[in-house]
Amino acid sequence: MSTQPEKKPRKSRKPKDPDNPGRVSQFKTLFQVSVKQNPRIPVWMAAAFVVTFLVFTFVLHPIFHSYIFTGIVGVLFGLLSTVIVFGRLAERAAYGSLEGQAGGTGAALQALKRGWTYDQEPVAADAGRARRISEMSNAAMVFRAVGKPGVVLIGEGPVGASRKLLESERKRVTRVAGPEVPVHVLRVGAGEDTVKLADLAKTMKGLDKKLTDAEVSAVTKRLRALGTAKPPVPKGMDPRNAPRMDRKAMRGR
């Protein structure tokens, strides 16, 4: 009597975590969102690939005398240039989607790297007569960041209200941090004396460095002890929920 070997039970696949999508899913989502903001992104990506492929193929062929080898190299560098172009355009699209949104500055500050500490929620805000989330586009907010250049206060919203909040917060910070700590005042927007949201991180990094790492840490502790003025924001509005940019995905990693 023959006996058949017992079949091993198949391992069940682990269900996908909806809160932790894979790289391909992240890239696909980022691509769809970016194209929605800038429909010409696929055209620029295709142009980058074709130009890079042709340049490498015709430049290297006289050296290696092999269209197969130069074609492979052209494809690899073409894909690399496509990813780079997409990353730049996706970053611009992300900033474009944040323009005019309440709390967009908090999301833009995420582009800052090491050496900076910042609050993702405003340290001061004036919602005016706003009573609903849909009216928050007219709210004035002030965000705060601390780095080697000193303390940077960034205002957004209506000109008059944001300038008033910035001046009030500047005096408050100077009183606590001390007159020896530089306090820079910036305002994001599209008018005069403003910084574009896409250029905010670059502008802050370009400020002259005046503090050491130890001094930055000390100033940060003082300001955290100071606390933040509770902003009069309508219920249901949380500036920390502003759209966030996936920097790794924009770099194609």
TrEMBL record:
Basic and acidic residues: compositionally biased ranges: 237-253
Matches recorded under Pfam families: DUF4191
Transmembrane found in the keyword field: yes
Name of the protein: DUF4191 family protein
InterPro entries reported for this sequence: DUF4191
Domain of life: Bacteria
Keyword annotations from UniProtKB, A to Z: Membrane, Transmembrane, Transmembrane helix
Region: Disordered, residue numbers: 1-24, 225-253
Transmembrane segments: 41-61, 67-87
